[in-house]
Design goal:
Elements lengths: L2 H11 L22 H10 L3 H11 L3 H8 L3 H6 L8 H21 L2 H9 L10 H4 L3 H15 L5
């Protein structure tokens, strides 16, 4: 296995799309630090229903909210099975959401605290809960900007 392949495997293990493995001590790079090419390749490959389930489980976001964020019906989410993959547009939105959670988990250093933050109205976001803004690409961008401000200690 080459170094490039090893890194790719490590990247796939450390993200909200994968089952959390607390026993693993491997140092890996979070999704938000992936290169654009790695993200593009993952999107083209498609995100599986299994990966979406892992994201759902770790974030505590239900299918109704996920359907809104991903711009699909709940039936679309329910009808996929296991390793079946979503198309490029849905995979892209799933990866964008996973990217936000990956960044948030790193900055907040506490998964539950960040999950609560995503559901709590925030004055910096016009008193909207960050998760409610995730229905649009620009909303997701703004959530990442606020997390970045928190990361750098800027009042948010």
């Amino acid at each position: 296995m080459t170094k490039v392949e090893e890194a790719a495997i490590s990247y796939r293990r450390s993200n909200p799309l994968q089952k959390a493995d607390r026993r693993s001590t491997a140092k890996v790079v979070p999704i938000y630090q992936w290169s654009s090419y790695q993200k593009i390749e993952t999107i083209k490959e498609g995100i599986s229903k299994e990966e979406l389930e892992n994201l759902k489980e770790q974030t505590g976001v239900d299918y109704s909210v996920l359907a809104k964020i991903l711009s699909v019906t709940k039936a679309t989410l329910h009808n996929r099975k296991g390793k079946e993959r979503f198309d490029v547009s849905v995979s892209e939105r799933i990866l964008l959401l996973a990217d936000i959670y990956s960044y948030g988990y790193t900055v907040f250093k506490d998964q539950e605290k960040f999950n609560r933050w995503m559901k709590t109205p925030n004055r910096a976001l016009g008193s909207e809960a960050p998760l409610s803004l995730a229905e649009t690409i620009y909303g997701m961008e703004e959530i990442k900007n606020i997390i970045g401000r928190i990361d750098y200690g800027v009042y948010s």
